[in-house]
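call fold(seq) -> C-alpha cells
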Amino acid sequence: MAGRVPVMPMFPLGSVLFPEMPLPLRVFEERYLVMLSELVTSGDPRFGVVLIERGFEVGGGEHRFGVGTAATITQLGAEEGVVGLVAQGGERFEVVEWLPEEPYPRAEVRFLPELDAGPELEPLRRETEQLVRRSIAQASEFAELVWPADVELSDDPARALWQLAAISPLGPLDQVALLRATSGEELLRRLAALTEEAALAWHTPWPEDEPEG
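ret:
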C-alpha cells in the first residue's frame, strides 16, 4: 500500500525561497491569517512557498510553479491587523496535486532528496563562489542588491550550496531552475552558467543613437 502523500498549506509568492535561507513576511490577507492561526495551533509550523507564474500575490487566482520549498516559522508577531513573521527555508518539494482552497491554498506534495555535497565538489564550489561574488560586485554598480559580495556563507557544505544559489543576482525564473537541481554538481554548474549569462547584460553597451537626417 502506497504511503500517504503529505498535505501542506501553501503561500505563493513573487519570489523564490531557497533551502537554508530566511524569509521575512508581512501577512494581512484574511486567508493567510487563517492559515497562520491554524499552523500555530497545529504543532507543525511549516508551509510551502512556490513562485507565482502568472498573477499577483494578493487576491488569489494566480498560476503557480510546481516546485517549492517548505518554510518553518521561527519568529511571529502581530500589530494592527498585520502579522510579521520570519521563516526558514527547509526541504524542497514538488506539488503532486493542488487541493481546493478552503480558504487558503493547499497541496499534496512530494519532498525531494537533499543534494549531495561531498568533498569532490569543493573545487567546483570554490570556482562557482568566486564567479558569483564577482558577479554580485559587478551587478551592484547597476542596481541595489539584497546581498553584498562579501556576505559570509555557512561552513557546512550542503547549506553553503543553497546559500550560494540564493545570493547570486539572478531573476526568479532562473532561481526556479536551480531549485529543480537533482545533484550538487548540477546545481553548481547550472548556477555558474546562469550567472555568466546574466553578467552579459551588465557588460553589453547601450546602443549609440543613430544620427538624424
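The longest strand covers residues 82-99.
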